[in-house]
Amino acid sequence: MIRAVAVIVPVHDEESLLGACLASVSAAVVQLRAERPEIACSVWAVLDSCTDRSAAIAAEAGAEIVTVTARNVGRARTAGWEAARRAFADVDAAEFWTAHTDADSAVPPHWLVHQIELADAGADVIIGTVRPDFRDLDAMRTQAWWRRYTPGAANDAVHGANLGLRADVLAAAGGFPPLAEHEDVELVAAARKRGATVALSDDAWVRTSGRQTGRTPGGYARYLRDDLLSERG
């Protein structure tokens, strides 16, 4: 059974979206505490080379703050979960859950409750779905997205914006690799190779930014900009 949860949010200059992200995470924490009061829970914002108001926004939201200067999301995620692990050193790693999202995303209120339910049922890793903020997309991309994806149908696409892992599985897989992108995909692949039980779910999908200029050349922004219209639904 899970005894503690840490939500890890890497941040690089996200002042326009971070407040909404952390508000959504706070709502998920409130629901988890209401339904599972025996589980300790904390939120960790990892400020990576931020030059805007992200630090102030994270502090105002009451998040635990870790500061790095890596400009690397893999290193930022690692700094966050390792700090959280130290804070809960008295909790066995198999009973410590790490939930991951991104600073440009918003989770639903039942996000953490859903992850813990799946973890209690035996999942070591949870791959959740995401949906872009359709206000950021033009009509062609919006239509193309709905042709590709069916609400309620889970898929095997790994997104750091909606991911959960037991701490012992995360550590055994080598942690997040120090990559500027696709660190989430590589981590899950490593966990699978070690025999981790992986659950796929669309029941707590996360809304993420539909921007098409991202922090790195690849990633979801590139997918929305270049790949989505080239795919055949």
Using brief descriptors, characterize the structure shown.
eight-stranded mixed beta sheet, 233 residues, alpha/beta, 8 helices
List the topology elements:
Blueprint: E1 4-11, H1 18-35, E2 40-48, H2 54-60, E3 64-68, H3 73-87, E4 96-100, E5 105-106, H4 111-120, E6 125-132, H5 139-148, E7 163-166, H6 167-172, H7 183-193, E8 198-208, H8 219-227
Describe this structure in words.
There is one protein chain. With 233 residues, the protein is of the alpha/beta class. Helix content is 37%, strand content 22%. It has eight helices and eight strands; from the N terminus they run βαβαβαββαβαβααβα. The protein has helices at residues 18-35, 54-60, 73-87, 111-120, 139-148, 167-172, 183-193, 219-227, and strands at residues 4-11, 40-48, 64-68, 96-100, 105-106, 125-132, 163-166, 198-208. The chain has an eight-stranded mixed beta sheet with strand order 3-2-1-4-7-6-8-5, with helices on both faces. The N and C termini lie far apart (40 Å). The model has no long low-confidence stretch (mean pLDDT 95).
